[in-house]
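Before the break, one more example. Copy the sequence into your notebook; we will annotate it together after we see the structure.
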Amino acid sequence: NQTSDALAMDASGRLYFVRTDESYLPVLSWSADKGRSWSRPVRINPPEVVQSVLTSITVTPEGRVGIAYYGSTDKQTWTGYLAISDNATTSAPEFETASVTRPGQPLMPEACCWASGPQEYTVARWAPDGSICGAFVATVPKGNARGVLGRLVPR
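Here is what the structure looks like once it is written out:
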């Protein structure tokens, strides 16, 4: 599991950690005490995403959370997803989520990254206008790499 961009911190020192849980779905936890204790993990995926890998997080100084990850609706094909939460540390956080490709046009039209190695990755970053941007690189059939940039503009 990718962990290079799994941890972020806001201006108050609150830590945010995103990962794929034992059910292979993306979850977020946070800590307000420098990592001594953590919130219960909350799922960030929409119901149609049944498996995920390679989570990446970015957080604004105010605590706005942006997450990028690969998700699958059928455990066979994969696309990139972006999620934003303005209330990630509340008792009922909400995540606005969108895929970076159109339905039926996955980034990886085959089984995911387990066998392919380190060629797949995700990166999440904030744009100056407050939208979340994500970079997704995937190995596709015949070993070629394909990159896609996505952007989620909040409503």
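The mean pLDDT is 87. The first strand starts at residue 7 and ends at 9. Try to locate both features in your own notes.
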